[in-house]
Amino acid sequence: MQDLGTAFSLALGLILSGDDGLARIVGLSLRVSLTAVAIAALVGLPLGALLAVARFPGRQALVVALNALMGLPPVVAGLLIYLALSRSGPFGALGLLFTPTAMVIAQALLIAPILAALSRQVLEAMWDEYAEQLRSFGAGVWRAVPTLLWDGRFMLLTVLLAGFGRASAEVGAVMVVGGNIEGFTRVMTTAIALETSKGDLPLALALGVVLMAIVLGVNALAQGLRELAARRGA
């Protein structure tokens, strides 16, 4: 217990002192995850809105596929991207493997289906409520989609926060495509795994505390936005 207490004390010291190594890892983690969420949102949110509004052959199969992809194992996603970016892969000439860009691609691939599936559920309920009114104004599918995205922006922010929480906690895929290179592709989750295996508990605990603080903050913000959206809809 004394050793554990010492480790926690040293971890707190790293956080309060703004340790450079800790700050670099946290900064890279946030940049990668935020960039991945932004890219995934550009694909996932419009796709979710389109599925909420449009009815076309194959729609149900696409919905089922998105729901299934929400549970895509991260290491499988990492392996697919690794194969695509490796020297013998179709995009090997770009030299993206073991770079932060590859990590962004991996996280975006993982969370885009989550954003699409969750936004579809949110916007489908709104479409059921607003469909008749929008149709009376002559709004077709392509006008209804941006309208729903705008009117549901507060609820969709909670979807984005869920995606960010998923991205920031990811370890398998980013380990495979990033390589966990110190000072270059080492993020919080991969660093925690490495430092724990090395026995450097203070750094692992410090990163764990920061990661938990981020996750709790994201969840608190999401809850606040849900309550705000509920009050606005009341």
UniProtKB/TrEMBL annotation:
<dbReference type="InterPro" id="IPR000515">
    <property type="entry name" value="MetI-like"/>
</dbReference>
<dbReference type="GO" id="GO:0055085">
    <property type="term" value="P:transmembrane transport"/>
</dbReference>
<dbReference type="InterPro" id="IPR049783">
    <property type="entry name" value="ABC_perm_TupB-like"/>
</dbReference>
<dbReference type="InterPro" id="IPR035906">
    <property type="entry name" value="MetI-like_sf"/>
</dbReference>
<feature type="domain" description="ABC transmembrane type-1">
    <location>
        <begin position="26"/>
        <end position="222"/>
    </location>
</feature>
<dbReference type="GO" id="GO:0005886">
    <property type="term" value="C:plasma membrane"/>
</dbReference>
<feature type="transmembrane region" description="Helical">
    <location>
        <begin position="33"/>
        <end position="54"/>
    </location>
</feature>
<keyword id="KW-0812">Transmembrane</keyword>
<feature type="transmembrane region" description="Helical">
    <location>
        <begin position="61"/>
        <end position="85"/>
    </location>
</feature>
<feature type="transmembrane region" description="Helical">
    <location>
        <begin position="201"/>
        <end position="222"/>
    </location>
</feature>
<protein>
    <submittedName>
        <fullName>ABC transporter permease subunit</fullName>
    </submittedName>
</protein>
<feature type="transmembrane region" description="Helical">
    <location>
        <begin position="154"/>
        <end position="181"/>
    </location>
</feature>
<keyword id="KW-0472">Membrane</keyword>
<feature type="transmembrane region" description="Helical">
    <location>
        <begin position="91"/>
        <end position="118"/>
    </location>
</feature>
<keyword id="KW-1133">Transmembrane helix</keyword>
